[in-house]
Design goal:
Number of helices of chain A: 10
Shape of chain A: globular
Largest interface: A-B, 45 and 38 residues
Strand order of the largest sheet of chain B: 1-8
CATH topology of the largest domain in chain A: FAD/NAD(P)-binding domain
Oligomer: heterodimer
Radius of gyration of chain B: 15 Å
Shape of chain B: globular
CATH superfamily of the largest domain in chain A: FAD/NAD(P)-binding domain
Number of strands of chain B: 8
Number of helices of chain B: 5
Largest sheet of chain A: 5 strands, parallel
Order of helices and strands of chain B: EHHEEHEEHEEHE
CATH architecture of the largest domain in chain A: 3-Layer(bba) Sandwich
Radius of gyration of chain A: 23 Å
Strand order of the largest sheet of chain A: 3-2-1-7-19
Strand content of chain A: 25-35%
Number of domains of chain A: 3
Helix content of chain B: 10-25%
Distance between the termini of chain A: 35 Å
Structural class of chain A: alpha/beta
Distance between the termini of chain B: 8 Å
Structural class of chain B: alpha+beta
Number of strands of chain A: 26
CATH class of the largest domain in chain A: Alpha Beta
Helix content of chain A: 10-25%
């Protein structure tokens, strides 16, 4: 039995740990285009900010790969899968045979068709090499524009600001962090960023990246306003990097579609992480939700199933935890419901940058958002995951003293006896 | 694996478990030095009181630990041999993802250090310090 994993994201680590729960012996090969073993990808922001060193990025120690009998083929790009012959084909002509294959190629930055996007001085921010390239700009340029006010864009902005650059963030939506957070939360974080000196422009988009002799000189917004800058970071979001399955007959939609065992439409080939369209816990539908916990978890379930355990993936729960200049922010589940069929309870203390929001559907907690005050937040996540009816004690959950005592005795007893 | 179980029917809410935890994880392991001279760290359990009821919450060292799944830096790992869910402070970046994920709310933020803090079942002891310190056997260290 030969296991092959394509990709070096956290799904690959989950898969190795999942395989080894059942199969301690058979060899695992990880093929990755990036020349690095798995690193804490979100930490590229901490690295660029100067808070940690490159050596701190390794997600598992070196011995992990030896102990788990993992061969790393790094800096090698897998371009095709020969489904009939069960081989992964590499760009350099090598062929890697597999019995069970995991596609964990992750996401790639989405680049909209902005005039002037092609050429030097335009960057993305999803890899260690991206961070190194931006790091090399520090001290050489003064102004930079970040297109996209989501988590990646704001983290890039924060890091570059702290390194002395003048940063402008341009966001299409009416607020920053529009995917996971709401208007109120976006405003709190937006104000904090403005306070430290990061300019945030919402409800706007970049019409053109202006170049002079090929080099970036500024941007023009769709309303005609402009900003001077010497570089642009495009951080609008990531899309599944599924090129490798072209011509294989593997079913794709937005991402690579997988069943409850993380297996694709071709037996023996699995997918996990940002490339996969897997079960979403709350909606019961298959969705691409490119977040770290889902990637690890899907990788782990894929690994266990690849090794022969028959385990059903229970579905991912969207969640984000991130801090901006001392303000912790968390969003779990359906924190931002689209329609009116939900009960929404909020508490806002603007002067303390505290905001708390619970979202209920038929008395069941389905989402939560916490800004500033996050102690014991996981209790809410547990209630969401376990679909607990919280109607009778929802006021308790709104307090900053949130505790297990807030829960009915029988639930508490069951949880604590695990 | 052996875990710490709390019995709320006999817990008297004295919080000696918290003190024992802080002392055990101090540099000197001496109660007076730990509280008077060293930088005090939070206890790794949470004592809750609600009217007449009190109980202590301890890490469950879960089979599928949500804190491990969400950790972005590899700072939380479950030891496959012992089952203990360990936190490596040097690797922690204080993103609070584990605080968001732990359904027991038992991972604490140590905001002075910008890192989290959690139960390690006292690697230097046979019996965890909290269990030893409990005067009324409200904490049990056993395999269920």
């Amino acid at each position: 039995m030969k296991y092959v994993i394509i990709g070096n994201g956290v799904a690959a680590i989950g898969a190795v740990e999942g395989i080894r729960q059942t199969d301690r012996q058979n060899p695992i090969t990880i093929i990755a285009a990036e020349p690095y073993a798995t690193y804490g990808r979100p930490l590229i922001a901490n690295l660029l900010r100067g808070k940690i060193h490159e050596a701190d990025l390794a997600y598992r120690p070196e011995v992990f790969y030896r102990d788990n009998k993992v061969t790393l083929l790094l800096g090698r790009t897998a371009t095709k899968i020969d489904v009939a012959a069960r081989r992964a084909l590499l760009e350099d002509g090598d062929k890697v045979p597999y019995d069970k294959l995991l596609i964990a190629t992750g996401g790639k930055p989405f680049i909209p068709p902005i005039q002037g996007k092609d050429g030097p001085d335009v960057y993305t921010f999803t890899t260690l090499d991206d961070a190194k390239k931006l790091d090399a700009l520090v001290g050489k340029i003064k102004q930079i524009v970040v297109i996209g006010g989501g988590l990646i864009g704001l983290k890039a902005a924060e890091s570059l600001h702290d390194r002395g650059l003048k940063v402008t963030v341009v966001e299409l939506a009416d607020r920053i962090l529009s995917t996971a957070f709401d208007q109120t939360a976006g405003k709190i974080i937006g104000n904090r960023l403005a306070e430290v000196g990061i300019e945030v422009i919402t409800e706007s988009s970049v019409k053109e990246i202006v170049r002079k002799k090929d080099r970036v000189k500024g941007i023009i917004l769709n309303d005609g306003h402009n900003r001077g800058c010497e570089a642009v970071v495009i951080a609008i979001g990531v899309i599944p990097d599924k090129d490798i399955v072209k011509g294989t007959g593997i079913e794709t939609n937005r991402g690579i579609v997988v069943n409850d065992y993380l297996e694709t439409s071709v037996a023996g080939i699995y997918a996990a992480g940002d490339v996969a369209e897997a079960l979403d816990l709350l909606s019961g539908e298959r969705r691409v939700v490119p977040i770290w916990p889902n990637a690890y978890n899907q990788g782990q379930y894929a690994g266990r199933n690849m090794a022969g355990a028959r385990v059903t993936y229970k579905g991912g729960l969207p969640m984000n935890s991130i801090e901006f200049y001392g303000i912790p922010t968390m969003s779990m589940g359906m924190a931002n419901p689209a329609d009116a069929g939900y009960e929404v309870i909020t508490r806002l203390i603007p002067e303390k940058n505290v905001y708390r929001k619970l979202v209920l559907k038929d008395g069941i907690l389905v989402g939560a958002m916490l800004i500033g005050e996050v102690e014991r937040a996981g209790i809410l996540t547990g209630l969401i995951r376990n679909r607990v009816k919280v109607n009778s004690f929802k006021e308790e959950l709104m307090k900053d003293t949130l505790s297990l005592s807030s829960l009915p005795g029988e639930i508490r007893a069951e949880w604590l006896n695990k | 694996m052996k875990k710490v179980y709390a019995r709320e029917d006999v817990c008297i809410g004295c919080r000696l478990c918290e003190i024992a935890c802080i002392v055990e994880h101090s540099i000197s392991k001496d109660i007076i030095r730990a509280f008077k001279q060293e930088e005090k760290r939070p206890a790794r359990n949470v004592v809750e009181e609600c009217g007449p009821v009190s109980f202590s919450v301890h890490c469950r060292h879960c089979d599928e630990p949500p804190c491990v799944q969400v950790c972005i830096s590899g700072a939380i790992v479950k030891d496959p041999a012992t089952g203990i869910v360990n936190h490596i402070p040097e690797k922690c970046v204080g993103c609070w993802s584990c605080v968001m994920a732990c359904p027991y709310g038992v991972i604490k933020r140590d905001t002075d250090r910008g890192k989290v803090i959690k139960c390690d079942l006292c690697p230097d002891r046979d019996l965890p310090a909290c269990v030893s310190a409990c005067p009324n056997e409200a904490l049990l260290y056993e395999e269920k």
